[in-house]
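hi support,

uploading two proteins for the ticket. first:
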Amino acid sequence: MKKFISMLFAAALVFALAACGSKADENASIGEQVDHEIIGIDPGAGIMKAAAKAKEDYDLSDWSIVEGSSAAMTATLKKAYDKKEPIIITGWTPHWMFNAYDLKYLDDPKGSFGEDENIHTIVRNGLKEDMPEAYQVLDNFHWDTDAMGEVMMEIYDGTQPEDAAAAWVKDNADVVSEWTKGVSKVNGDKIKLGYVAWDSEIASTNVIGKVLTDLGYDVTLSQVEAGPMWTGVADGSLDAHVAGWLPITHEDYATKYAGKFEDLGANLEGTKLGLVVPKYMDIDSIEDLKEQ
């Protein structure tokens, strides 16, 4: 009997402590709830530079920005979201996670993340003379966030990127015909496109790669980091990329290689960068991260 009573007492004590802990969690600041961590992506990304600026602008000296990758960030988000736990990430649109989860941007009254960006098509110098057909397609390439989102969600749901791209190209022949209007087919000409492992760029690069393949090109898609992607176009080891986030995210690379590439303009308008949280979190602004 004494042993049974002791067990009951121990169980009650554990329950009481758990209840106290739960109450403490509810009363904790946002910073305490997430261990003062913002889940970021690869350190070379412009959004990480903007996040560091936000940390300074909003006097968040006790916060850290966790470096990783886009895949690691979304995996961490899913884990927290499934448990309805608090989390803060560096986010951008277009991205499939805004279709998969109920998320919101934190207001940025100090403008640390800048204005909305566009995604540009960047080609090596001389491509127009060497590959006029491919140049014309790349120059004509333009779509919107809804179209990109369709491809991204297919990939997110498990379809291979090349298959998702092929399906979209088939289902949107009218759009593709605008990109290829007046373009002659070629016979196995080699072209190499670079891209970063962001879901948006995986989608766009596979789509334009499929279009060029259907025109007779021997297309190689090379996944690299942002720096090598811009370097490759500048030194000619890559022919093009359709992943230039400007004027902020890739500003450093565009400035560094000015004159060594040709900017064909935006292939998608209206991207956005910022700090993102699930809508179930009771926070609306980056200013709210500052503990009083």
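and the second one:
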Amino acid sequence: MNYAKLREMEKLCKGDPQKMARYAAAKSDYDETIAAMFTEDSPIKFVGSPNEDYVKDAEAHAAKTGDADDISRAAILRDRYEAYEDDKTTHMDLRTTATSLRAKLLNGDELTPKDVRDAWRLAKLNSSLDNQALYARVKREQANPSERPPAPGVVKVTAEDVEAAKEAAQRNPSPAVMARWINTKREYEAQAEASE
């Protein structure tokens, strides 16, 4: 099991006893592998969050010795390094997913089971109220397409609308006015991305 998958299992298992049990078993297997591969006597030491130079040194040592255990150790370190590097772009992937789903809802596009899975994953990995509400709405509208409101006509949110909502929020920063500004801004951004 690779480290990125194990970490995702941990984030996605919350609230589901079966998934929690699968995660616990997978983590136990992973930890046992680490303990068996990286002993006090092993030439390559385990680093939980290795940098690229350390990984390259471990790979060079493994290539030099040709030992299967050294090759495995280097592969484990490479996997952990790549998992932490992927974390740096995960938030961008989640934001792209959220924007895409909001655009589908705004345009009245057909929602698929994959959209529901993507919204669920988004809500699990970044459980903000917005993402949870997005998941609930995508799930509801995908399950009951006949109850979906009709796609909006040619009503477009303009940059002037966003600016006016922003000015109103600056004058009166109440939660309702701030929410109106944020929603206007999101609709404008979704329209801009949908038209690209």
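thanks. also noticed: The CA atoms of residues 109 and 151 lie 8 Å apart.
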